[in-house]
Amino acid sequence: MADTQQTSPASQSASLRTSDDRRIKSIAIVGGGTAGWLAAAMLARALPGTGTVITVIESPDIGTVGVGEATIPPILDVLRFLSIDEGDFIRHTQATYKLGIKFSDWKQLGHTYWHPFGTFGAPIIRRPFYHCWHKARAAGLVPHFNDYSVCAALGDAGKFRFPDGNPDSPAAGLRYALHFDATLVAKYLRSYCERLGVTRIERTVKGAIRRPDGFLDELQFADGSTLRADLYIDCSGFRGVLIEQILGTGYLDWSAMLPCDRAVAFPTASASARPPYTHSRARSAGWHWRIPLQHRTGNGYVYSSAYCSDDEAREDLIRSLGEKPLADPRYLRFVTGRRKLFWNRNCVALGLASGFLEPLESTSIHLVTSGLYHLLEHFPDKDFDPTNIDSYNDELIFENERVRDFIVLHYCLTQRDDTPLWRYCQSMAIPDSLRQRIELFRRTGRIRWRAGELFTDLSWFYIFEGLGVRPDRYDPLLDVVTVGKLSELLASMANSTAAVATAAPTHDSYFTARTASGKRAATAL
């Protein structure tokens, strides 16, 4: 019988103390704005009772970008994670509801298509509905897109309702997100964080001292003061004060496949009827967004400086809107791409400090929160195990590259050839991963999608369909469904969708007495 060695209670206590000594006890977040305060909020919520000190450093000399006003449905999961009441959040951030994105002039001038949230039709013989769509087309049927998307039907009618709790209801698969004022969101989250004990200081980071092993030791501020932390979160925007200026992490440039590198933005008066969707309209040198809020409308033109000057972009946007700006235009310059590492030593980059993917699919805020969820899954101790950091970086790189491919898809499939930008997009080199997806869809109507990707097969279908990609064949398993039976099923689904859209209230009705009282409709979740 082998000898056994028992550990005394004193030894166990010593081991626990050693483990506790390695615990992260302080976190410094450089930069406020939406990214910085989201980081503080989610970390504070996840680390209650641990004694971890969280400090947000905001520079009084550097403003935030503050134009990221559109989100995707996972934002509601973030509010639930933070135990924030959705109605209260909407009132304080002048938010409106979003059922998807409506694209105009992307395929061709005068053409419009939808990327709605939620379900599309219903599976038939357990096959995704888009295969049924392909068969219907092949059989000579002419299905209408909005008949099978509750979100698109509601959006075009200027209406909104919450998902139905009854799983058999055609509104059960409805999904929505929010438009909001990013500046107000940062203020709201700051108040939330301060109630949880997060400290805010106003300082301008001048530099940082590094330890012999290359890790960040302490921050140096312009006023001569310093701050030491165990873990640093860089939310300093495009400058990447820690991740790039101090640690020299490096950057991968994706501008060859995403050529827009500028944006101009300004608000206009709130529209008389706020549509429950983001509108993206392609222009000669890029595209412009229109985002309805309760108190104003957000507008911006994302463009390529190779084909359009700043003055031309501003004038083009003003002319196309036909409205007077309520504030001076704000200009942004960026290089689409990502840091080579999102986590380098004891520094994690979030938001614009980690890279930039243009806001075409409203992914900016989601990528911040996704980075935070992954950080919590990989939360370190003071040893900062390199295998743990490598795992985090692998997951973030995978997600960012899949999102990149999805955004490139909108450009490379255009049929426009009326301006130099769109002709370039038709001929530009694209990643092999994207080329393979396009070819698979063209040949079979199938969509390669893997667990962990932000955009599901349904989202990919919406863009393929909207930009006119017609597959050579449909799923042969659907041959067990006759054309007559398929026609009956399509008609039944269309009637159900129409009934939901007809009965729903207007989107604007949610921002009168209902929002003011903090009450939600009887159909609320």
How does this structure look, described?
36% of the residues lie in helices and 18% in strands. By secondary structure, it is an alpha+beta fold. The strands form five sheets. A seven-stranded mixed β-sheet has the order 5-4-14-15-16-13-17. Strands 7-2-1-11-20-19 form a six-stranded mixed β-sheet. A three-stranded antiparallel β-sheet has the order 8-9-10. The longest helix has 27 residues, at 386-412.
Task: Give me the secondary-structure topology.
Layout: H1 9-21, E1 26-30, H2 33-46, E2 53-58, H3 74-81, H4 86-93, E3 96-98, E4 100-104, E5 112-116, H5 129-138, H6 150-157, E6 177-179, H7 182-195, E7 199-202, E8 205-210, E9 216-221, E10 226-228, E11 231-234, H8 241-246, E12 251-253, E13 262-268, E14 278-283, E15 286-292, E16 297-303, H9 310-321, E17 330-333, E18 337-339, E19 343-344, E20 347-349, E21 355-356, H10 364-377, H11 386-412, H12 420-427, H13 432-444, H14 457-466, H15 483-503, H16 513-516
Parallel strand pairs: 1-2, 1-11, 2-7, 4-14, 11-20
Antiparallel strand pairs: 3-6, 4-5, 8-9, 9-10, 12-18, 13-16, 13-17, 14-15, 15-16, 18-21, 19-20
Q: What labels would you give this structure?
A:
525 residues, alpha+beta, globular
Q: Which strand order spans the largest sheet, edge to edge or round the barrel?
A: 5-4-14-15-16-13-17
Uncertain segments are: 1-18, 514-525
Main sheet?
A: 7 strands, mixed
How many β-strand stretches? 21
Which range best describes the helical content: under 10%, 10-25%, 25-40%, 40-55%, 55-70% or over 70%?
25-40%
Task: Indicate the multimeric state.
Answer: single chain
Question: Given the C-alpha coordinates, what overall shape results?
Answer: globular
Figure out the total of helices.
Answer: 16
Distance between the termini: 62 Å
CA radius of gyration is: 25 Å
Kindly estimate the percentage of residues that lie in beta strands according to DSSP.
15-25%
The structure class reads alpha+beta
